Structures
1.
Amino acid sequence: MNSQGAAAPSRGLLGAALTLLAGGAFAQALPLLLGPLLTRLYTPQDFGIYHLFAAVAINLAVVACARYEFALPLAQQAAEARSLWRLCRRILAVVALAATLGGIGWAAWVAQSWPLWLGPAVAVGGALSLAGMAATRAQRFRTLAAARVIQYSGASLAQVAAGWLQAGAQGLVLAPVLAQAAATWLLGRGATPRVAAGTPLPGLLETARRHRDFPLLNTPHAFLGALQDSVSLALIAALLGPAAAGFWGLALRYLKAPATLVGSAVSQALYPKLAAAGSPAVGATAAGRRAVRQVMGVLALAALPLVAGLWWLGPRVFEWAFGAAWRDAGVLAQALALYVGLHFVASPLAVVTMAWGAQAWALRLALWGQLAFVVALAAGLSAGGLAGAGWAVSLAMALFFGWYFWRLATWPLRPDEAQA
């Protein structure tokens, strides 16, 4: 009987992950195929501006709901989920307004209009995250997969259209905002947690206090993780110019695509399983720790050919696909190969510490990792340009992720599990 009970969650996790993976693969296929066309419609400078804007917008969007949306899968009662939803929407409105004002100031500073899209980008990014976690709580995996197709494929098609219209960097900036708005609309249909008429809802302050670990611990974690990308692009642009920032942005966009595809699918399927007991309890269950080990092992095997292929063919593939002007992005890809492989394994695992009540530990570790990344990047840029930065980042992150994987694989069990 126990063996049957253990097998069912495994089949459920596999089926959910495969559904999301199929949708994600379809969503990512078109953007990757259109990439060579985009690099011929836009200059490296255009891409540099776009990636800088996207990094800032993502930095704000990931914390636009103060990460309260990630508590939705932990809410066992519909009333609690509804209260979380309302809380997130109010926080999102304030953050979006602040981003709009910031975008106006940014536009005045650079004397260009593309920063004016910062407010809408943050608003739709936060709304998409909220709708996605509500759909995750309801385990609406097919809808999540369809929304991912709209988000990524729609953005690339709109960027191509803007490129033909010679919209420049502003076209690159606006297209993903429109695609995310469409994906949010799809997820939002029926995603609002519903309660029976007359059911009392927990107060917003009570809900905020109950899930305070998310804004206090997960928000700085997510914000600093996104800030790493913003600081990296700003540092590269300042030292080597916007074209170099374009090389960095394009390389990481393609190199992290497999991690985005697989990571989001696995994490959205894994999180509800690890969080099935409700609110986070300190420590892992034996079944949960075993599942995490299996996920790490399978992803590590999948990452090996990716790393080897980049070491062997990186510069030639980038030059062939994107044009001679982008060969430096391929040299950078070769240097970043080890980091990319490790990131591929780590990408789905951020939800593990949420489910195991270890967000404080995850925040401390992330701070060290982000510091190591930025220091390695700066040292590599000074010593050997973009390629030197790639090799320095790969070495530093190999040490960091090695420690991270070992800690998750040996995570202490909950007291009730340890005594069983």
2.
Amino acid sequence: MSDKELADLISQGVEAVEDGDTAFGLVCLEKASMHYKAPIICSYLAYCIAKERCQFEEAISLCKEAMVEEPADSMHYLNLGRVYVVSGQKKEAIRMFRNGLLFEDNKLIREELNRIGWRDLPPIPALGREHSLNKYLGIVLKKLRLR
């Protein structure tokens, strides 16, 4: 397979996943991963595996491998967050999405967070969300439009 064909295959797979067609994305990315092992392929392939085959442990492992190789790429956090959403681990998904936003303001991550519903961090993160200081400080900050 030539480099151009491989690049086209990866591009088609990623585009399919972003369009919601994880079945086609899975086919493209599996084929590409046989010829070339790149973190972005592993990351997107992991999401496809979780969505289409419900193999969550394998998917999480693939995403974490990609994150080890490229720890500052927000797309890996996006895909790991998506894997957590599919597996029903909403709290972990939100944590991954937020971690990804620390590296760059990724529009896709923001869309995922808005889709699943999320809340800002409490004013004093060291205290629990339900702590009275966080409750009342949050109310005051919201009224002052500082949050």
3.
Amino acid sequence: MELVKPDFGLVFWMTVSFLIVVFLMRKFAWGPILTSLKERETSIEEALNAARKAKDEVANMKSENERILLEARNERDRILKEARETKDQIVNEARSKAQVEGDRMITIAREAINNEKMAAITELKNQVASLSIDIAEKVIRQQLGNDEKQKALVQELLKDVKMN
């Protein structure tokens, strides 16, 4: 049972060996391990901060994009409204100009028709007068072509004059 029971020298050397191993581990292993863990922790924290910052920027960009899209829609609606108003104004102006021009052309046409009508009536009167004169001349020639007929016509005219 002596094997199980440690001796003072064994415990002393084991403690010294353990302390040397702890010192060496602390000097050569724990320092670099702790330093690399600290650096890793710092890089992870920086990455998380960058991710939060990027997420905030994306949220800001999204809200900015929505705002810009809303402004673009409002601008589009305003432009379409102005275009409709301009179109309506142009159509109304064209309609009124066409109405005025149509009325003017109708007035001119009526005047031309009246002028042509008056010219036709005048021409017709002139032709009727000319034809009446021609007919009267032919009738008178026929009536007065004979001496007896001339005397009878004079006698008849004289009777009419005395009666009046």
4.
Amino acid sequence: MYAVIKTSGRQLTVKEGDVITVNRMAAKAGEAVTFDEVLMIGGAKIAIGAPLVKGAKVTATVSEHLAGEKVLVFKYKRRKNFKRTHGHKQALTTIKIGKISV
């Protein structure tokens, strides 16, 4: 069984036991999180929401909080002696999908 959930502006396809990385969540490590915005549930019987599947939930546990890969942003303007380098690390949370319920 799989589900399509919506979290932090992204739509993700998840199965039970998957480990996914999403934008930083307020929950602490080891805490249980419930996703109520389920767009679709698939398997033997497919349920497509309009826009959400009623009564569907996906529960997960927060594994850890971490910083993503460093992204360098380089700004340059020719003939103006202007160069700037900025770095950014996205705050991420790793979660493990537990149960998908309809």
